[in-house]
Amino acid sequence: MNQAKHAGHYQLGDLDVTRMGYGAMQLAGSHVFGPPKDRQQAIAVLRAAVEMGVDHIDTSDFYGPHVTNQIIREALHPYRDDLVIVTKIGARRGDDASWQKAMSPVELESAVYDNLRNLGLDVMDVVNLRLMFDVMGPAEGDLEEPLTALAELQRKGVVRHIGLSNATAKQVAQARKITDIVCVQNQYNLAHRGDDALVAQLANDGIAYVPFFPLGGFSPLQSSTLERVAMECAATPLQTALAWLLQRSPNILLIPGTSSVGHLRQNIAAAQLKLSPEAVAALDGIGAPTA
Predict the structure, then answer these.
(1) In 21-104, alpha helices (H)
(2) pLDDT tens per residue, range 119-154
(3) Is the pLDDT score of 167 beyond 50?
(4) How far is CA 4 from the centre of its chain?
(5) Annotation marks residue 209 as catalytic
(6) Collapsing DSSP states into helix, strand and coil, what is residue 254?
(7) Catalytic-role residue among 10, 22, 63, 209
(8) For helices 224-232 and 277-284, angle between their N-to-C axes, nearest 10 degrees
(9) Are 191 and 219 in contact (CB under 8 A)?
């Protein structure tokens, strides 16, 4: 049972992954803090994802914190040889569940080793530096110190590849002068299209683009156009939104998250949905810039 394979493949550095992955953020408790209501259900979701062909799981030790990585280890360790686990560092959680900047070299090194310990790994496949110059979205700021620290961990052999999250195009350009970047993970979906030019640029350079909140995140996508196209395709609106992303650019890797096995199956089924040129054109209009 390998439905995820219908999404095709792409490279994360030297790692070949299926373009339909899984994001583990929703396996933590409310507001991505504390334990889930049903730990066994979280374990079931992870095992079902792998059984359906997902070989790319996105996580972070600041989900919980620590909770999500510990659940991944319980569910899937020892890991399959082809399973790629991608994490994020650069933030930490306050006791009040707040998201706080943690981008000093000492904090970054500690975060990498926290991820390794909680996941039961010796090497992280990919570590994304989550930029925290603004918690709410990308904001300019210098990357030399944090990226140099992360590149040093790569030289030590505990990090295989490096990516960025919550980054501007200018920061991506600066980062690539410091070290190789294999992916950029930013908010992007049908209605949030600010990275259109960056997606195209990265595709030209063979770098993966990984949209977080591909279905709208905490505010699910709602559009009469999306509903109409989905009905015409005999699919759900969210499946249609995922299919649009897969057809948007070959370098897009999807990591839709869910804590439900049923929703997981629906998400992965989107890999088999092929949108007509007319459907794509209609959906493109949802987030198109206005004059």
Answers:
(1) 39-51, 67-76
(2) 999 999 999 999 999 988 999 999 999 999 999 999
(3) yes
(4) 16
(5) no
(6) strand
(7) 63
(8) 170
(9) no
